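ok so for the tutorial part 2 we go from a plain amino acid sequence to predicted structure tokens. step 1 is just haveing the sequence, like this:
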Amino acid sequence: MVAARITVNGKEAPISPAAPHTTTLDFLRERGLTGSKEGCAEGECGACSVLVARPGVNKPTDWVAVNACLVPVAALDGQEIITSEGLATAGEPGMPATLHPVQEEMAVRGGSQCGYCTPGFICSMAAEYYRPDRCAHAGPDSASGPDSGSGSGSGSGSGSGPADSIDHEHGPNGFDLHALSGNLCRCTGYRPIRDAAFAVGAPTDEDPLAQRREQSPPAPVATEYTQDDSAFLRKNTLAETLELLRERPDAVVVAGSTDWGVEVNIRSRRADCVVAVDRLPELRELRVESDHIELGAALTLTEIERRLDGDVPLLAELFPQFASRLIRNGATLGGNLGTGSPIGDSPPVLLALEASVVLADADGEREVPLADYFTGYRQSVRRPGELIRSVRIPLPLSPVSAFHKIAKRRFDDISSVAVAFALDVEDGIVRKARIGLGGVAATPVRALATEAALEGKPWATETVEAAARVLRGEGTPMDDHRASSLYRSAMLGQSLLKLYAQTTEAVSS
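step 2 — the prediction. this is what the tokens look like for a chain of 509 residues:
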């Protein structure tokens, strides 16, 4: 077995002697790369973000921003990352480095005060800068877009700013502000950061990181990294992984580590054995068949979002509201379902879509409807040694759908209540209704009584108001610091009324 190594800013470095639970953030800082900061240690502030070379959607390689505070450095064995220090171009001996266009725009637009969060913003911004399908919008403001900048690819001096934006969340240069939804700034204020984001140009042909996108990312490598009686393991195939889990049913299975990383940092959890499944090719397939869509359990939410490109409208509504782009770049459906959390955002949507999970162990596979998967608080029918291999969504999809997330913040927050609807309405009659709920019981649940109250009835005010009263009584909501049980119940009923108002408005227009 080859010694575990990682390429940082173009230079290869051994991971040893770091412990298997050591985060990428701590690994980098111990080596003097202190641009990445620890702000929250749970993936909510983005001060730690770095770029990772990952398999691309539109090009061989995408530069993807991730939270270095959550990812074990051993999980990046054989992979390639860029930190904020690696974005600038080194100058001649005795001369200063040349700022990266993103760094330059942040500087000239006043996008930094104390500077603590700035490197993280810059890495997240650079990931969007290098997104292959980002392009300037046509129109009167397109002159301030990517092709109008200086020879460095920067849009400095173009006058881009809020007045030039296409809408609140997208700039004339195609920059999507959701790329920064996982980055928090406590002192600068977001307007100058937004100005910088909307002013960056397009990468030039000479840009080495842009050129790097045309080559394949590092191939997955088998990892057997052991220190002090604890191990981080990655196998080459699903079959090898399932045999390992048969031998070590106590192992912690991780993909993006967006949940386990929090346990390690905040609760000081440690595991004798961690098994990574994020690079297994059998868990990274996305197939559209005649009667279903198959989503590999180790595909990140960002990969699913970009590859489906809106073909499943209910998932398209979910993704922007699921945590932040930084989290979605690592989080997986397999991980979200595997933790069994009653407030995970994907289960209500998948319940409404009548999804099932394909479970695999060393003896074979079985398919379980998601409605039968959860058995109790963070418990499921998944047996020791079993993995979620994929999620199956049956086709055709219901034409009326919506996802309503009730939370204290619009983005990057945990749901107080999550409600997903998928309805078939034909000739004014509800032929089928599927409603998934999160945050109102010990597990994600289907609103079976409400579905029955809708099916076979006219999609009309009287029916919806009666069903909304039923929906308020679904689940067993509790009081906690996010919301009271009465509030949660009220939001359930209100959510159905909102769906009806939205669909009626769409039909009338």
